[in-house]
């Protein structure tokens, strides 16, 4: 508690000076009419002339520019305070339409009327998020692949063409450059406390956004271009995000008590925490998460700097260095190659790190912080389920780092379930976890084959010229041989020596294997490389299964309706014959994938030669499955070729197993 109470700022001295003092050094007042025309348009030239440049290379002199723009920002703030909401809407609302978030900007105006510090900071975070998204839409008028980082977006030639370079320089003074005020980053990364963000800078960005709307309108009229807004990202697979139980008001009330005594909370940041919990109770879910994510980062940074004995990293870095952010705090090693001590400091290191990686970092996860901070989600429709998980996780951290005399609260009947959920959390969005899900989904698809309609036997016998497949006995023998070798690696209750790839037993086996906990944290590159190939193989198998189901249903209907030509009837019967063997082969491949997965870490520790041979084998299996997708597609429908490929696949698997270049890696 002592350290979290003693911290008075998380801004380094130079950054604190730039944000809190530099723009207040010039005391003279500035006439708003100098930068605002009679018809309500921003006089950009009057604004841009306050941007100063270095004599050496004509780059922006950020210190002089901030000092010079300070009085203008104050004038704009006072101007907005002098307006009623109705006046502001009449004069400015239409100039925010280009952002596709007009309501957010009108809300920021309301916040400025009262200038409550926490609300101003929240308003500024939402404003910069929506502004960045809108600028990205404008960028796409001139270019492709919008830059991910705001600083790169603002420095782009595409935006300079639309708005002018001098205008973009003004924006970079406030956001996007580590040499300027950098308001977006110091807030979103949890460095700035509420009282350290002057309201006049929020007002100025609101003013500049309206001015950008005016410039954009002129550009669109001149070029006849149409601004298209990218659709919002929708959080998919919400059921996978359902980790903690639904939070009741009683739970939030206990969390409010924990805030006062938890060493995880920096005292200077307490208003953010209180506002976050209040927002959740008021069903303002986006606001709650926007306020909370930077504080999770700030609290973890405090633990990180304490456990790794680098207290200076608690502060914002200078423009020449990197901030200590989530990415570094969740890494296995520090930048000096020493082991990061933060995970060990967390009572459930894997759980906390895996949760944060899942919700914030993994590319196929929800990446909540990225989505919110870059304006990719609709703030009005932010899901309660997502907010519930972030708030619940934050409460577990408050509990873990609270004093012993808070034991009664930690053991409270509404808190205990949260702690239990936290202690058994497993990654949902790591590539290893996603592979498990893919395998089980593929197995479910193959299981549906048993329900496919089939042609009555008496009708099949009326078709002449359908030759018996002489490879059938060879395929059956190879399947039996390979699966018998796999028996020693399978749980005894999940397989049968008579039919190891029986559909029901295979499903039970795969579920059992996928239930095994596999370390996902800090997976080395070779592991991820193997898992990537296994995922591709699984994807191809699933596509084959879906194609078989679709083709079988269509062909059966055509058969019963007698709309198939003679050649099509023969081909349909070949398909029915082929899938008798394709089904156990696909199940065999899924078993191999899963067995490889549960031993993936030991596989990748083998010597480089064995590892490369192993990759070669996996890539050859991938090639076979890709070809199977081609042959079983409705366009190709090549079932004789598919049978040949099934034979080649089994020969390849058997050869590898004979040489012990694959099965040597399999472990129980």
UniProtKB/TrEMBL annotation:
InterPro entries: DUF4209, ERMARD. Transmembrane segments: none annotated. Signal peptide: none annotated. Pfam families: DUF4209. Residues 131-211 form the DUF4209 domain. This is EMARD protein. It comes from Grallaria varia.
């Amino acid at each position: 508690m002592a350290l979290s109470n003693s911290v008075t700022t998380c801004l380094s001295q130079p950054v604190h000076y730039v944000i809190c003092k530099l723009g207040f050094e010039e005391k003279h007042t500035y006439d708003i009419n100098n930068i605002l025309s009679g018809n309500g348009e921003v006089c950009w030239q009057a604004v841009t002339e306050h941007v100063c440049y270095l004599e050496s290379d004509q780059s922006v002199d950020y210190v002089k520019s901030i000092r010079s723009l300070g009085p203008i920002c104050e004038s704009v703030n006072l101007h907005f305070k002098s307006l009623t909401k109705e006046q502001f809407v009449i004069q400015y609302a239409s100039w925010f339409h280009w952002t596709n978030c007009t309501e957010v900007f009108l809300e920021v105006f309301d916040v400025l009327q009262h200038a409550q510090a926490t609300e101003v900071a929240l308003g500024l975070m939402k404003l910069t998020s929506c502004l960045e998204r809108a600028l990205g839409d404008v960028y796409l008028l001139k270019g492709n692949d919008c830059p991910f980082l705001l600083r790169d977006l603002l420095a782009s030639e595409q935006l300079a063409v639309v708005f002018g370079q001098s205008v973009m320089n003004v924006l970079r003074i406030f956001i996007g450059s580590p040499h300027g005020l950098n308001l977006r980053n110091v807030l979103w990364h949890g460095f700035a406390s509420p009282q350290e963000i002057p309201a006049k800078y929020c007002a100025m960005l609101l003013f500049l956004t309206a001015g950008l709307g005016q410039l954009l309108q002129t550009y669109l009229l001149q070029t006849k271009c149409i601004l298209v807004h990218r659709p919002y990202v929708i959080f998919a697979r919400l059921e996978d995000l359902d980790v903690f139980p639904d939070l009741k008001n009683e739970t939030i009330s206990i969390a409010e008590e924990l805030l006062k005594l938890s060493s995880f909370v920096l005292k200077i940041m307490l208003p953010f925490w209180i506002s976050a919990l209040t927002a959740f109770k008021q069903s303002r879910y986006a606001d709650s998460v926007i306020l909370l994510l930077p504080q999770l980062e700030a609290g973890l940074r405090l633990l990180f700097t304490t456990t790794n004995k680098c207290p200076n990293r608690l502060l914002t870095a200078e423009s020449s260095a990197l901030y200590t952010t989530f990415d570094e705090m969740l890494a296995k090693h520090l930048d000096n190659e020493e082991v990061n001590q933060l995970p060990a400091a967390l009572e459930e290191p894997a759980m906390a790190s895996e949760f944060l990686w899942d919700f914030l970092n993994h590319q196929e996860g929800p990446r909540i912080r990225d989505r919110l901070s870059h304006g990719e989600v609709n703030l009005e429709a932010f899901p309660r389920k997502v907010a519930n998980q972030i708030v619940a996780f934050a409460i577990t951290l408050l509990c873990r780092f609270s004093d012993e005399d808070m034991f009664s609260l930690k053991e409270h009947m509404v808190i205990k379930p949260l702690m239990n959920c936290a202690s058994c959390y497993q990654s949902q969005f790591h590539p290893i976890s996603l592979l498990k899900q893919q395998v089980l989904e593929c197995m479910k698809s193959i299981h549906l084959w048993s329900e496919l309609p089939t042609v009555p036997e008496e009708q099949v016998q009326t078709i002449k010229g359908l030759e018996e497949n002489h490879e059938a006995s060879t395929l059956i023998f190879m399947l039996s041989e390979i699966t018998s070798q796999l028996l020693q690696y399978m749980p005894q209750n999940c397989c049968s020596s008579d039919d190891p790839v029986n559909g029901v037993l295979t499903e039970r086996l795969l579920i059992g294997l996928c239930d095994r906990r596999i370390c996902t944290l800090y997976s080395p590159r070779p592991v991820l490389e193997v898992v990537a190939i296994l995922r591709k193989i699984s994807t191809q198998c699933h596509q084959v299964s879906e194609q078989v189901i679709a083709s079988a249903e269509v062909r059966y209907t055509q058969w019963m309706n007698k709309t198939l030509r003679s050649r099509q009837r023969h081909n349909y019967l070949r398909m029915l014959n082929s899938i008798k063997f394709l089904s156990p082969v696909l199940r065999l491949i899924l078993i191999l994938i899963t067995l490889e997965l549960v031993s993936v870490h030991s596989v990748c520790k083998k010597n480089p030669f064995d590892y490369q041979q192993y990759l070669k084998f996996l890539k050859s299996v991938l090639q076979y499955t890709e070809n199977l997708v081609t042959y079983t597609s409705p366009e190709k429908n090549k079932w004789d070729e598919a049978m040949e490929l099934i034979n080649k696949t089994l020969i390849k698997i058997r050869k590898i197993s004979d040489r012990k270049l694959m099965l040597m890696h399999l472990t129980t």
